[in-house]
């Protein structure tokens, strides 16, 4: 580690000051600090004086944001390494949580092992998955997937959600297997993630049964069906989408019928037109209007 510059030493001293104006002036220039100041900032994050803790927290944020403006380069890498050091076992829980939040902004492959290790720590696993979820690249995706079997059931839906948000196609079969879980939270989380990813599983789509689900889970179930079907249309696989849309068209809910009609219209197939046609005379005004607009769009 290189020696800390005189300017950085001056700013660190300002953060420790009993004078609020001096502390503010120091943290306002936190972006000028060198990455080597991170360990000293970490010490101040747990200082007895509340003002010093606040000043250190603000200064660290500015330092991280200044490094984050650079898409690459040694400064950003050095900040990432410094933050990774704060996420280690020798730091207080609060400091490790702060480090993970900042790593989610500037971290790269080099900090993935540190964050991945904390996925099994009940006190820090939410911070760890938030961090990994935002770090781009295959290394973070692989770390999230590898952690799935090692975490307790209550955290598995969060792992699946991260994979879905990242649209990790390599996780398709993992999500498909999760949909078969007897735990409804895991099953619906697997379905939701699979729908976001959009890749068709090797054995085809086998959604969890809707009957055992609570009201919110049933809402997610329907949303996932529509999302998956929409993705199949985009991927040039309209036949699987048509079956889902036609099944949803038989549902009583107005908004579900309308969504199915819109989805059907996007396939542009004669089979879709035949499914939409009866809805032109629906007893429901909104469904009837939606069908008419979809019909006109398909004719155009």
Any chance you could write out the topology, listing elements then pairs?
Layout: H1 6-16, H2 20-28, H3 38-45, H4 50-68, H5 74-86, H6 93-106, H7 112-117, H8 125-134, H9 138-147, H10 156-166, H11 172-178, H12 184-197, H13 215-234, H14 238-248, H15 254-267, H16 270-276, H17 285-299
Helix pairs in contact: 1-2, 2-4, 3-4, 5-6, 6-8, 8-10, 9-10, 10-12, 11-12, 12-13, 13-14, 13-15, 14-15, 15-16, 15-17
Question: Can you characterise this structure?
Answer:
This protein has 300 residues and is mainly α. The protein is 66% helix and 0% strand. α3 packs antiparallel against α4 and α6 packs parallel to α8. The chain is elongated, with a radius of gyration of 26 Å. The termini are far apart.
Largest sheet: none
**Class by alpha and beta content:** mainly alpha
Mean pLDDT: 94
- Total count of helical runs of at least 4 residues: 17
H/E series, N to C?
A: HHHHHHHHHHHHHHHHH
Q: Which spans of ≥5 residues are poorly predicted at pLDDT below 50?
A: none
Distance between the termini: 67 Å
How many strand elements? 0
List keywords for this structure.
single chain; 300 residues; mainly alpha
Short summary of the structure?
The termini are far apart. The chain contains 17 helices and no strands.
